Amino acid sequence: MTTTATQETTKTKGKLALYWAASCGGCEIAVLAINEKILDVAAAFDIVFWPVAVDAKVRDVEKMPDKSIDVCLFNGGIRTSEQEYMAQLLRKKSKVLVAFGSCAHEGCIPGLANLSSREEVFEAAYAQGDSTENPDGVRPQHETPMPEGPLYLPVFYDTLKTLDQTVPVDYYLPGCPPEAENIWAAITAILEGKLPPAGSVIGPNTTVCDECPRKRTEKKIKKFLRTYQVKPDEKTCLLELGLVCCGIATRAGCGALCPKVNSPCIGCHGPNDGVHDYGARLMSALASVIDSQDPEEIDQIIREGIPDPVGTFYRFSLAGSQLRRRKKQVAGNGVKRG
Amino acid sequence: MSDKNAFEPKIIGFMCNWCSYRAADLAGTARLKYPPNIRIIRVMCSGRIDPTFVLNAFARGADAVMVAGCHPGECHYVDQNYKAMRRYAMLKHTLTQMGLEPERFRLVWASAAEGQQLAEAITQLVEAVRPLGPLHWSGNWEENGHRHEALESILKEHEAAMEVTE
Q1: Protein fold of A7-110+158-192
Q2: pLDDT of A136-189, one tens digit each?
Q3: Distances from the Cα of B88 to the Cαs of A52, B76, B83, B93, B94, in angstroms?
Q4: Which residues of A touch B81 (CB under 8 A)?
């Protein structure tokens, strides 16, 4: 960008940033699933920051004027101080901040670690792993003194936070990862300035069941089954077969991808508008279909059929749920601080 | 309540309009004593109690939650209290995995004539929760590491490490 001509073309183009916090990287790949349309994106936007694909440094972003990035697609939850810093930085520099994908939206699989404490996570990663050899019990330290001066690692948080628990978010793009057509629809909406009201989840406001081709009748369940215990036919509703299919509580927009291939919906799109707690909605719906009026039998159906309730009801949304995490032994146990 | 420093649990009670709320009313008019720790929220039916309400109560500072409805088979809306029964079981199962003590969440059936029984159930709940201490769920979200220092130092680290000076 040395000549004036280049500078002028840059001015007419929008500026786009993409960032990756606590997530698996699937969202980064999902962006490329829009295939050749990525060229349209490149034609409309200058990609000013995208660590996974473009060589730009954080320091460059720090020097940008505030609100100079038009759109930032941020995927991943917030697990470390470095990720929180980047969320704050990109919020400050971006006009529109999009929580891209389930991790940024609701915490997703990394958020399930909220069932453990930081120490338990470290114990699993740095002591218990089959391939781990750590006789001195070394753990990551925030500060390590070295002769040349101290070295710093980010602080690893006890609790994974969603993006909107960290900074204000303008839009949410649900999915693990978001489907290509939905990404394209969101980008088109941004390009054409046809965005929904701020704070919206970009996607249809109906459930996966509405997109599912399976036949629904009245549901009465005596036993919840695991996927290996049933061989579903192509027509019957999976929930009626006894599988915990989350489609009943999950936002549509995926075209019922999983139920179409005999696999129950696991709820990656999260809840519809107006639902404050995805898991609560799912529990409520599943409780309604249990066919029993005997407390002991009900208990047995639930205990045997759903051995991991949090992992089932909050697989993608524990961090974004009302309780956010498992109860801790120390801080939350009646110790009022501050 | 002689000891001023004794922990007084805050309890949210969701009670159905037709039985349990009337039982609480009856306990009042009959001048039966029950501890003032419970804040009663009247709903039309125990089947109306969405698990969200219960989770919201815990997340926002309740030390315990009581759900109360008509006896099974006596629901004003035919069978909705069975729905409450199943939701309670489902929610209890989940809350146990979330680390919540089982004493903090309770389902009670009380007909409109059972003021005495309801008052006893409330007293029992308060006594069961008192030794557990405050729940203070939002305290679980607090970070106890060096979060603020770490956040503040990052920009300075970047300045020191990434600035090229000639």
Answers
A1: Rossmann fold (3.40.50)
A2: 988 888 888 999 888 888 999 999 999 999 999 999 999 999 999 999 999 888
A3: 46, 19, 8, 8, 10
A4: none
- Listed by number, the residues of chain B in 63-122 with a beta carbon closer than 8 Å to a beta carbon of chain A are 72, 79, 82-83, 85-87, 89-91, 93-94, 97-100
Question: For residue A321, which residues of chain B lie inside 8 Å, CB to CB?
Answer: 55
Residue A335 backbone phi and psi in degrees, to 5: -90, 105
**Chain A contact set for B83 (CB, 8 A):** 287-288
- Among A18, A45, A39, smallest CA distance to A29 is for A18
Cross-chain Cβ contact B139/A336 below 8 Å: yes
Q: How does A119-150 read in b/e, with b if 16+ C-beta sit within 10 Å?
A: eebbeeeeeeeeeeeeeeeeeeebeeeeeeee
Please determine, for residue A10, whether its predicted confidence score (pLDDT) is greater than 60: no
Total residues found in chain A within this entry: 338
Every domain of chain B and the residues it spans: 11-160
Sequence length of chain B is 166
* d(C-alpha B76, C-alpha B81), whole Å: 9
CATH 3.40.50 is held by the domain B11-160 = yes
DSSP secondary structure of B98-152:
TT--GGGEEEEE--TT-HHHHHHHHHHHHHHHGGG----GGGGG---SSHHHHHH
Could you read off the pLDDT of B86-103 as tens digits, one per residue?
999 999 999 999 999 999
Tell me the CA distances in angstroms from A202 to A24, A41, A105, A183, B152, one per residue in order.
22, 18, 11, 9, 33
Burial of A289 (0-12, 13-18, 19+ CB in 10 A): middle
For residue A82, pLDDT beyond 90: yes
pLDDT at residue A333, as a whole number: 39
Residue A102 pLDDT > 90, yes or no?
yes
> Quick one: CA torsion of A138, A139, A140, A145, rounded to 10 degrees?
-50
**CA dihedral over A203, A204, A206, A210, signed as positive or negative:** negative
Share of chain A above pLDDT 70, in %: 94
Cβ atoms of residues A111 and A270 within 8 Å: no
- Give pLDDT tens digits for A269-315: 999 999 999 999 999 999 999 999 999 999 999 999 999 999 999 99
Residues 6+ apart with CB under 8 A from A151: A143, A144
Question: What six digits make up the tokens of A252?
Answer: 């549509």
Task: Return the biggest CA–CA distance within chain B.
Answer: 87
| Contact in structure between A220 and A291 (CB atoms under 8 Å) | yes
Q: Residue A167 in contact with residue A83, Cβ under 8 Å?
A: no
Q: Where are the domains of chain A?
A: 7-110+158-192, 208-313
